[in-house]
TrEMBL record:
Location (main, coarse): membrane
Keyword line: Disulfide bond, Membrane, Signal, Transmembrane, Transmembrane helix
GO-annotated molecular function: transmembrane signaling receptor activity
UniProt-listed PROSITE patterns: IG_LIKE (PS50835)
Protein name: Ig-like domain-containing protein
Domain of life: Eukaryota
Organism of this sequence: Anas zonorhyncha
Species classification: Eukaryota, Metazoa, Chordata, Craniata, Vertebrata
InterPro entries assigned: CD300_family_receptors (IPR050671), Ig-like_dom (IPR007110), Ig-like_dom_sf (IPR036179), Ig-like_fold (IPR013783), Ig_sub (IPR003599), Ig_V-set (IPR013106)
Ranges annotated as biased composition (Low complexity): 142-152
Annotated localization: Membrane
GO annotations of cellular component type: plasma membrane
Amino acid sequence: MWPGWGWLLLPGEDGRRAALIAPREVSGHVGQALTLNCWYGPGYQGYNKYWCRGASWDSCRKVVETAGREVPRQRGRISITDNHVFCFVLLTLEELSEEDAGSYWCGVERAGRDIMKPVTVRVLPGEHWSTAPAFEGGGKQPRSSSLASSPPMSARSALVPTAVLLSLLAVAGSAGLVYALWRRREGKGTQGCHCAHPGHSGTHLGS
């Protein structure tokens, strides 16, 4: 399930513009793909971004990282892509399972303490298909049942690339809209980074 976009317009906790923005919680269904994005401040394009799992920021385990490059990287069912133009990291987790639920962190690696934001992943039951017992007229009539079976694996697998593609299109479209609104507000005289970071002032951001 794609998270709402309202959080993109929020400032940092101390009233200043945040150096890293991520949704606090995302959810997806078993067997489907889950996507989310983290927005970072201008000046961090070449830094290593990563996705780690664990209850605490100082003990979480990295599951995938960008190595500071825009080239998509994948590790098992998890992939990460860094967009240096619009300053966001796209994370995708395919074929969700109940074991994927838990606490994660979106992070930017830097000297000293990394910039990190926690994200809670919730996994919901998958969709099911079922058929009802034969009724008096003979034959079978499809209806809901507590004894449901999963749809064929081939059909479910075919939905994964479609979901990922739609998510990428949604991210690109939303990023373009945010960038256009920002450019209109800043005016033609503003110079600096083209990152579509919400509330960008053209300066480097701290933690």
